[in-house]
DNA sequence: CGACTTGGGTACGAGTCCGTACCAACATTT
DNA sequence: AAATGTTGGTACGGACTCGTACCCAAGTCG
């Protein structure tokens, strides 16, 4: 229960709160580690906490009984638990950790009380939800009209945006679940991308070699949502480094 | 500028507001007609009004320069202009009328002031946004893993939910744009669905003959978001008739 | 070291959908 | 009735992805 000083917080939303709003949250903040496959919340069960990642990535997946697949992704640019901010402590989605890391979380009730007391806090979090809707829309868009390679390129870019390193620990199997496709299909797509020199693949790892090339390969499937985030928060989605 | 009495309002969100919250909005409400292809707002331009359909349907489409396609649909169960409620009067999406009808609208600024004065009003509208996120997620889900016939069945069901009649004026061309596919593909899919007896097609019209059969054909691509709406508002999405 | 688990590569037939093109049926206007 | 525009039906080759199956390589653990 380390109630971090705001100046040391990496999460972009928390870091960009006014000092007063942060002070309102601080007594209730709790630092936790994120381990791959941890669940931050599960479909149709009460959401206990809203989670602001510091490092690592959480995936929001739709869980229909006919297999899950990813509808959105959150790292240190946002938070997981949009429905709590919208006043509902339950959702048909599941949220699980995609990349190991660390997060600051707050109880759902505490956050709701704090938002009731601070209109500027609420406004800040609602703006993120707008950008999240755009992200989910873009997932719908990408799924509708783009090839597996293009969608894979998009997914790698989104993951890259939210991690520190160019070397990312990801298996083909995992990507196939996130993209809702076959595992052998991912293998082929990875080989294609590797052939262009944009990435390098090794057992359980993908390394980004040439980000510009990858963006070119992703085409219009990437960029839309990221641009909106920049506009709304006047900050690029990717942390400078 | 007919400031409708709440008891005669068809829009489910407006109708289910408390009398006090409705009174807060009433001076600013304005009734307008919706004509096919009218735009309620355009990508990256200021959103002047939030629109609550009474009859008819509005589509929210992503507009990437590489062709538009639908990410969500709103009828009398909700409203168009989620980003205004989230505090942003601009969005990369475009909203256009899909089916002729009528709507009650309110200026973006007036609605924002009203929400600032009434927490219950804000909460009500935010709950709808949660259900809208689920709808967009399901579009992403359907686009990822379902065949054209299944997605067409889903789209027809969603349209049927929001219209009064089993007979719906829709062209193949229009469906192909909404589904992001080729027009001849729609023709084939329509014939498939017609072959099962679920619908009947005639020039510019689709008639729903057997809704249960259509739901069965749509499989898991339909139902998810509609169920969530029912849970959140304790009302079925389809108006009784 | 040998067995086991996990992750990755490959193959092949089948089905879906795309891109493109052309024609037929219907509606509206003059 | 002819002209024009809209809508719907059909065809065909090619690209992509699926479903399924099998094997190989790398790490792990007794």
Structure description:
Two copies of one chain form a homodimer. With 241 residues, the first copy, chain A, is α+β, with helices and mostly antiparallel strands. The first copy, chain A, folds into two domains: 136 residues, Sandwich (Jelly Rolls); 88 residues, Winged helix-like DNA-binding domain superfamily/Winged helix DNA-binding domain (Arc Repressor Mutant, subunit A). In chain A, 44% of the residues lie in helices and 23% in strands. Chain A is built from ten helices and eight strands. In chain A, strands 1, 2, 3, 4 and 5 form a five-stranded antiparallel beta sheet that branches. In chain A, strand 7 and strand 8 form a beta hairpin. The longest helix of chain A has 27 residues. The radius of gyration of chain A is 18 Å and the shape is globular. Chain A starts with 11 loop residues before the first helix and ends in an 8-residue tail after the last helix. At the A-B interface, strand 4, helix 3, helix 5 and helix 10 of A face strand 4, helix 3, helix 5 and helix 10 of B. Chain B binds a DNA duplex (30 and 30 nucleotides) through helix 8.
């Amino acid at each position: 229960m380390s109630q971090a000083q705001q100046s040391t917080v990496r999460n972009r939303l928390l870091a960009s709160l006014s000092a007063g709003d942060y002070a309102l949250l601080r007594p209730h903040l709790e630092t936790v580690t994120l381990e791959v496959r941890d669940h931050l919340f599960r479909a149709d069960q009460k959401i206990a906490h809203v989670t602001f990642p510091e490092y690592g990535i959480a995936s929001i997946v739709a869980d229909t009984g006919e297999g899950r697949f990813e509808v959105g992704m959150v790292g240190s640019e946002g938070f997981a638990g949009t429905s709590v901010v919208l006043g509902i402590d339950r959702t048909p989605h599941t949220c699980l950790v995609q990349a190991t890391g660390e997060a600051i979380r707050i109880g759902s009730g505490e956050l709701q009380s704090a938002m009731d007391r601070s209109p500027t806090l609420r406004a800040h979090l609602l703006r993120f939800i707008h950008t999240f809707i755009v992200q989910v829309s873009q997932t719908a868009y990408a799924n509708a009209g783009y090839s597996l390679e293009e969608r894979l390129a998009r997914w790698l870019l989104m993951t890259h945006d939210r991690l520190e390193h160019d070397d990312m620990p990801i298996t083909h199997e995992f990507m196939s679940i996130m993209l809702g496709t076959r595992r052998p299909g991912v293998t082929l797509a990875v080989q294609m991308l590797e052939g262009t020199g944009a990435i390098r693949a090794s057992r359980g790892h993908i390394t980004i070699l040439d980000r510009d090339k990858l963006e070119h390969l992703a085409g219009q499937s990437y960029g839309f949502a990221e641009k909106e985030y920049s506009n709304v928060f006047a900050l690029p989605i990717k942390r400078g480094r």
